């Protein structure tokens, strides 16, 4: 049972409104959210997430709406936004904004929150900055030829956008809200029989 299904005529805006737009309000209210594209190589995952200049995907539309929502409440609330971008390949984590840092480890902080130790976090003020960093990071993604695609991205790419907010009013208890938005472009989910590197595929998709 699916919440919604799209036919071949659906455009990027329709997909975004039906799947992701509703998450912005919760994010501003301090709730974490995750959006990911899943499917075999060549089915349009990266197109759905990234899109084109004429038909932007979920990344751009979500970030534009997020910063618009921040602007609309900025008279009352003080915000800070940061981003990180990593890939998971063969169960190893790599910082796409600083690939020379090697493989990174997961750590649990004092509040029980799982963090990627040593990941690069960049403060940002608009969607354009995040997209420029994401495009730079995409050039570092691991790619290998498969039977389905000569330049398939063989890693999971995870964009994390962190939103911190607190009231500007000093008379109000200074509650700090912190939320994360994860937007993920997964590696191809095709069956091993359809890929020229079945052993690697099995590890990638764990």
TrEMBL record:
ATP binds at residues 39-46. GO terms for molecular function: ATP binding; microtubule binding; microtubule motor activity. The keyword DNA-binding does not apply. Gene3D superfamilies: Kinesin motor domain. SUPFAM superfamilies: P-loop containing nucleoside triphosphate hydrolases (SSF52540). It comes from the Eukaryota. InterPro entries: Kinesin-like_fam, Kinesin_motor_CS, Kinesin_motor_dom, Kinesin_motor_dom_sf, P-loop_NTPase. Belongs to the TRAFAC class myosin-kinesin ATPase superfamily. Kinesin family. This is Kinesin-like protein KIF19. The gene is kif19_1.
């Amino acid at each position: 049972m699916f919440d919604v299904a799209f036919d071949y005529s659906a455009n990027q805006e329709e997909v975004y409104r039906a799947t992701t737009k509703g998450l912005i309000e919760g994010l501003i209210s301090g709730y974490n959210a995750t959006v990911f594209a899943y499917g075999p190589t060549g089915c349009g995952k990266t197109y759905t997430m990234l899109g084109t200049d004429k038909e932007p995907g979920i990344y751009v539309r979500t970030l534009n709406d997020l910063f618009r929502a921040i602007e609309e409440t900025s008279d009352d609330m003080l915000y800070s936004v940061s981003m990180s971008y990593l890939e998971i390949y063969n169960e190893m984590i790599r910082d796409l904004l600083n690939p020379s840092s090697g493989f990174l480890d997961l750590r649990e902080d004092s509040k029980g929150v799982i963090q990627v130790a040593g990941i690069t976090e960049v403060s940002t003020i608009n969607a354009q900055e995040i997209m420029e960093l994401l495009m730079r990071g995409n050039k570092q993604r691991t790619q290998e030829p498969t039977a389905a695609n000569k330049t398939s991205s063989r890693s999971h790419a995870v964009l994390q956008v962190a939103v911190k907010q607190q009231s500007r009013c000093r008379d109000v208890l200074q509650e700090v809200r912190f939320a994360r938005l994860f937007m993920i472009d997964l590696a191809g989910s095709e069956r091993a029989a359809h890929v020229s590197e079945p052993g690697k595929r099995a590890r990638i998709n764990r």
